[in-house]
Amino acid sequence: MSYFKIETPFAADKLAALIAAGGERVKGPFDGEEAVTLLADLDAGATGTMASPLLHESIRPIVLDSRAGRLDAAFEGWRRCLPLINHENRQCGLRAAKTVFAAGGVIGSDHVRHPLKPMSERTRERLLWLAREADALALRWGK
């Protein structure tokens, strides 16, 4: 196995162990959990992430800064993103990206199919506020 994404509790330790066991055969160890554990996973040797598309333009620089040894810059970027990442991960799920993309005119609707339910207005308002605070590109991309 050369490429893998770990999305489980204690992912960083599991990533580090797999990287150590796989040695040079490991080409792409990736962070999961929508970047909630991104810094710990990068510290453990992750070389990328498979986060949602909600904030990709802000996540990429964190990965690049970390890989280049600019750990203070990586932390600062992650700190700015974390409120939105957390809200997406714990309150919205995949509905977050759809809602922000629809608000930004990238897609026409944030409708979700069963078994998902529409997001509550309270959760939606907080999501869009956090997306504005994080300056999410998706809010202006389709306009």
Descriptive overview:
Helix 1 links the parallel strand 1 and strand 2 (28-31). The chain is mainly α. Helix 3 packs antiparallel against helix 4, helix 4 packs antiparallel against helix 6 and helix 5 crosses helix 6 (121-133). The protein is built from 7 helices and 3 strands, in the order E-H-E-H-E-H-H-H-H-H. The protein is globular and about 45 Å long. Strands 1-2-3 form a 3-stranded parallel beta sheet.
Please give a quick description of this structure:
The protein has 143 residues and is mainly alpha-helical. It is 55% helix and 7% strand. It contains 7 helices and 3 strands, in the order βαβαβααααα.
Features:
143 residues
Layout of secondary structure:
Layout lengths: L2 E4 L4 H12 L5 E4 L6 H6 L4 E2 L6 H12 L3 H22 L2 H9 L17 H13 L4 H4 L2
Helix pairs in contact: 3-4, 4-6, 5-6
